[in-house]
Specification:
Length: 286
């Protein structure tokens, strides 16, 4: 029986170490990433696709993200937004509910859940979702605005009008307190514009939308709101019932003044005319 050669054993371990080191060095970049890191890469890709309005492709990217990292509430929320953009509101509800299950204090997910429920016509459920969002973040002006819109859909117009007034007040307060931030917050100006439009103050709304679009010319909600407000203004101007009555300001000639004449006055005038006729006749004969 021979004894193991220590030198041979050391050489074998050295060769094995070199092979392992070579394998690590030659591994392709990113192959050692964790599932959560790969999911994060899918989320970034989905975000880029959303900016390009490639919503179905973004949906696939977010789907891949949640498949790899099912406990990522942000990924579920983004997946829900992509579902909404592709008109899949029932799927959006499920995605937002999953995000909330993972993070009950995720106010954006609660607001998005409210939006998707509202799109399905479930306004009472939407109001509850908005209330949860506002309970977490009282300064969520968008959630407050959307709550007002759902209230209006349920027939509570007076409650909705009060909320729109609150939205305008809170937006103005935010603009006064943080003017530098307000100068870069297109959503803040758009929220104010939407509330003004809902109150029928369309010209003021256009001014707010213009401010939002100056900050972000591609902000879709501001573009859509401004178009609707301008349409309302043009419709009002073209409606005869809403036109300004004709006055001296609109005409170089004043309108004639008509004095009502009673029946007695007419009789007296006829008698006087008859007397004058008789007098003229007698004068001609004389």
């Amino acid at each position: 029986m021979g004894r193991e050669n220590p030198a041979g054993s050391s050489t074998g371990r050295l060769v094995l170490a070199i092979l392992i080191l070579s394998a690590v060095i030659l591994l392709p970049p990113g192959s050692a990433d964790t599932p959560s890191e790969i999911a994060a890469a899918h989320i970034r890709r989905g975000d880029d696709l959303m900016v390009q309005k490639m919503y179905h492709e973004a949906l696939d990217a977010y789907d891949a993200a949640v498949a790899l990292d099912p406990y990522n509430s942000i990924a579920w929320n983004k997946l829900g937004v992509a579902h909404m953009r592709t008109g899949r509101y029932d799927d959006a509800v499920l995605a937002f509910e999953k995000a909330i299950e993972l993070d009950p204090y995720y106010s954006d997910a609660w607001t998005n859940l409210g939006d998707s429920l509202a799109m399905l016509g479930k306004h009472l459920e939407a109001i509850r979702a908005y209330d949860r969002a506002l309970g977490i973040n009282q300064r969520d002006i968008y959630a407050l605005l959307r709550k007002g819109m759902s209230l209006q859909e349920t027939g509570d117009s007076s409650g909705a009008m009060e909320i729109y007034q609150d939205v305008i007040r809170l937006a103005d307060l935010e603009m006064r307190k943080h003017p530098n931030y307000a100068g870069f917050d297109a959503e803040l100006w758009t929220n104010k514009g939407d509330a003004l439009s809902r109150l029928g103050r369309h010209e003021e709304a256009v001014t707010a939308y213009d401010a939002a679009l100056e900050i972000n010319p591609k902000f879709e909600r501001a573009e859509q709101g401004r178009t609707k407000a301008m349409d309302a203004i043009l419709l009002a101007r073209g409606n005869p019932a809403l036109e300004t009555p004709v006055t001296e300001e609109k005409s170089s000639q004043p309108l004639p003044t008509i004095v009502p004449v009673s029946g007695i006055s007419i009789i007296c005038a006829l008698v006087l005319a008859a007397v004058l006729t008789i007098v003229r006749t007698l004068r001609r004969k004389s």
